[in-house]
Amino acid sequence: MNMMNKANLQSAFVVTMTITASHVGVRNEPLAAAVLAGFAVSAATKSTYLQVVGAAPLQVDSRSTQRPLSKRRQALLQTAHGQALQVQALKDLGSALDAHGLAPLVALRMRCGLTQKALCEAAGLPQPHISRLENGKVPNPDGATLQRLAVAMGVSMDDVMTAIQQGAIA
């Protein structure tokens, strides 16, 4: 492997490590396991990666990758102040996504102060369907779905459809 490929792979390692670290949670698993869990590439690339960093192949478990909430955060979210902070954080993140033109339906949901779980419950739609809508995999949802989303988020059907269409284009 030449130096350029080795440098690029090491850069990919740092980026992957940074992105994956936020999804790892509080578990005490080896850093390489955390990185490989989020390193969605071919087996050949993984073997090259392992040779470069000198790591052994790891088995990745199928447990949920959702980060568990700390006891402090759980306690905070049970208070009105904690819930208000979470809503404000979602709104701020939604505004930032919108300002950069990223993930329009996600940005709309967050600007409304809703988590995906809260939107699912409010709209009466299954979470996988919301996820497909947010990822642009359902470019033309039916009118009932648009109505449910609009009512749950407190916006117009036009706002929801515009966000879905922009997401399908991206």
UniProtKB/TrEMBL annotation:
SUPFAM superfamilies: lambda repressor-like DNA-binding domains. It holds the Pfam family HTH_3. One of its GO terms (molecular function) is DNA binding. InterPro entries: Cro/C1-type_HTH, Lambda_DNA-bd_dom_sf. It comes from the Bacteria. Residues 105-160 form the HTH cro/C1-type domain. Transmembrane segments: none annotated. This is HTH cro/C1-type domain-containing protein.
